[in-house]
Amino acid sequence: MTIIRLKERIKKLPTKPGIYLFKKSQNKTLYIGKALNLKNRLKNYLKTPDTRIQQMLAEANKLDYIETESDIEALILESQYIKRFRPDFNIVLKDDKQYSFVVFTDEKYPKIFTTHQPQNVSSIKYLVSGIKKNKKIQDTKYKIQNTKFIGPFTDAGALKTTLRLLRRIFPYCTCKQLHNNYCLNYHIGKCIGDCCLKKSDVSSIEYLVYKKNIRAMKEILSGKKSSLIKRFEREMENLSDKKEYEKALQLQNKIKKLKRVFENAQIIHNTRYIIQDTKTEEYSTNILKQLAKIVGMNLLPHRIEAYDIANIQGKFAVGAMVVFTDGIPDKNQYRKFKIYTKSTADDTGMLREILTRRFNHPEWLMPDMILVDGGVAQLNTAIDVLRIMNNELRIKVIALTKNENHIGTKIITDTKKEILLYKLPTEVKNLLLHLDSEAHRFAISYYRKLHGKSLR
Predict the structure, then answer these.
(1) Are 110 and 195 in contact, with CB atoms under 8 Å apart?
(2) Which of 321, 326, 339, 422 is deepest in the core (most CB within 10 A)?
């Protein structure tokens, strides 16, 4: 497909979510991708430096697309079409990385998790209650029989975000060990409670709810969201006819939440194949590699969030979140918070509030790293919020500490390792200082806006 033909085709594409299919003769599908915005996504193919994509474009002679109502549906539809057509270039362009699959275990209370190796899940390691030695629970291989897989999914991050969103509507268990009391996930609405208790009753209402939740998750991830909603609506009408109004209202709320997730969530990164300046892109990647190594991360911190607070003795207190994507400010992702914490001097309390509110928005893309302004107290606050709000995530947390002149002196990692800034590579130090100063600038600008309004 020539660039001219591709340009002409792109002009006719919608700016909606969906999937796109590059095809060659005999209508054979070469590559399937998903997009939050089909037109913008396909524009990225016009100046790609990637030789593999150039090869795919050379073989393609047709570009089709299917519009979806949301990017979650695009993620799921892409999975179904890749499974159906098995396009050659979807494998080539993964750089030998495996796709993600959602696993449903066959247990009294089935668990849901993601894996890159579905063929090996029969040896997933769990802590199983009741196998004891010297009064301690031992690790054991827990055999999972008749496990169901849904996939493949190309975007592990988008998939995990989708599962987090859906889990708020259809709670399910992730505990690896049975216990006597309700778990933390139960208290924050991610678990029904009985599923991980040592004494659970399969005849209880909670058990029936749990089984329905698992069924709903399977249907949604298999692309049957519409039929699921129609079934819920029929059930709601039947409950109303039986004058079971409370149950009908609960189901109505569930339908509304599900529709809202699909309408409002943004889970897909617009992966960029256009590199405006290849040297600049490579430079940023090298900096992120250095930063990852310094703070002890296995993966690159593609999305870094930095936080700061602005106030004078607690008045007009505000918080700011800035986002750097691949080392570059991503201003569309910035967020500001009007702080309601009553304390006039407790910066950690204010930080706790804005981080808690931030992670009550699972529809926002999740960070790989968080930078907070402060010392050990602020660091511990951020770690504690993550533990409570998103204990299944693995987000690196670092604090940037300053001297009395408000000049950065060191960073402290979540392992309590302290690193002086002057010992860091210049590029890494500058990135961290840029993150911190941008968060401070954004917080101050919001503070001045609120303070200015109060003087009018």
Answers:
(1) no
(2) 321
pLDDT at res. 123: 40
Sheet holding 18-23, edge to edge: 29-35, 18-23, 62-67
In this structure, the number of other CB atoms found within 10 A of the CB of residue 445 comes to 13
Q: How confident is the model at residue 451 (pLDDT cuts 50, 70, 90)?
A: low
Residue 144 pLDDT > 70, yes or no?
Answer: no
254: buried, middle or exposed (CB in 10 Å: 19+, 13-18, 0-12)? middle
Asked whether 258 and 229 are in contact (CB, 8 A), the reply is yes
Per-domain boundaries in the chain: 3-92, 101-223, 278-454
Residue 397, token pair as written in the block: 């947390």
CA distance 377 to 410: 15
**Which is it for strands 369-373 and 396-402: parallel, antiparallel or unpaired?**
parallel
CB atoms inside a 10 Å sphere around CB 7? 12
CA 213 vs CA 55, 208, 210, 306: distances in Å: 44, 9, 5, 36
- Per-residue model confidence as pLDDT tens digits over 343-363: 545 788 999 999 999 988 877
Residue-averaged pLDDT of the chain: 82
> Which residues lie below 8 Å from residue 19, measured CB to CB, with a gap of 6+?
32, 33, 34, 35, 65, 66, 68, 74, 77, 78, 81
**Domain spanning 3-92: which superfamily?**
GIY-YIG endonuclease (3.40.1440.10)
Chain-centre distance for alpha carbon 313? 35
Q: In what order do the strands lie in the sheet with 112-115?
A: 112-115, 100-104, 148-153
The answer to whether the beta carbons of residues 148 and 104 sit under 8 Å apart is: yes
Tokens for 384? 């504690």
Helix, strand, coil share (%) of the chain residues, nearest 5: 45, 20, 35
The larger pLDDT score, comparing residue 201 to residue 220, is at 220
Fold for the domain defined by 278-454:
Nucleotidyltransferase; domain 5 (3.30.420)
Could you report the per-residue pLDDT of 235-244, keeping only the tens digit for each? 999 999 999 9
- For the chain, how many residues are written? 456
Model-wide pTM > 0.70:
no
Contacting residues for 222 by C-beta, under 8 A, at least 6 apart? 76, 80, 150
